[in-house]
Amino acid sequence: QVWIKARDRYDAVALSGTDAVTNFTFSPDGEWIAFVQGNQLKKLQVTGGAAITLADSVSGAPGLAWMDDGTLVHINQGQRSLRRIPEVGGTPETIWRSDSSLALLPTPLPGGRGVLFVNSPLGSASPAELLVIDLNGGEAHLVQAGVILGLYAPTGHVIYVRPDGALLALRFDLDGRRARGAPVPIRDSIVVVNGFLPLVALGLG
């Protein structure tokens, strides 16, 4: 179940109707939460109320990106594709697909420029890769190899986690959607669940 704790309070409040939620994310304005329940993508106001179903055939795998252009990017069932859907609902659009790898942990770039996600090859010793998709019709390309989560920071960096729990920062050209320079270590010992799910979030407030 999803719980919310205000920054100025110690206690948290459970959101009704969010039992058995597998992953969630906030809207850019912080007024809504989108979440996956069963195989459905839903959204709910943080103040409560009835959940609104947006899409079916959604994977419960970690990752859900609410873009500031008014769309949501989610993982399709089977994890072989990423789809984008308007935040008000509608027909999903496939923005990436692979028969040889799985998609994990999509996260947004600002201004609707694109989405970061982890590409995990199937049946291969190759490490997971952080890719970026240009949502204006571009293809996915590599940002950094050996990454299990990537988050864009307003400083102009991609903050990413390696499988060993190391947290690093990499300068990122937002307009060109390209990494620049060498990564800089931030800290180590980030908890990684089951080898692929790091317990870390980037606070922007």
Q: Could you state the order of secondary-structure elements as H and E?
A: EEEEEEEEEEEEEEEEEEEE
The main β sheet shows up as: 4 strands, antiparallel
Separation of the first and last Cα atoms: 24 Å
Q: Order of strands across the biggest sheet? A: 3-4-5-6
The radius of gyration over CA amounts to: 17 Å
Provide the β-strand percentage band. over 45%
**Number of helices, where a helix is a run of at least 4 consecutive DSSP H or I residues:** 0
Shape: globular
Structural class: mainly beta
Q: In words, what does this structure look like?
A:
By secondary structure, this protein is mainly β. Helix content is 0%, strand content 51%. It contains no helices and 20 strands. The strands form 6 sheets. It has a 4-stranded antiparallel β-sheet, with no helix packed on it. Strands 7-8-9-10 form a 4-stranded antiparallel β-sheet, with no helix packed on it. The chain has a 4-stranded antiparallel β-sheet with strand order 11-12-13-14, with no helix packed on it. The model has no long low-confidence stretch (mean pLDDT 91).
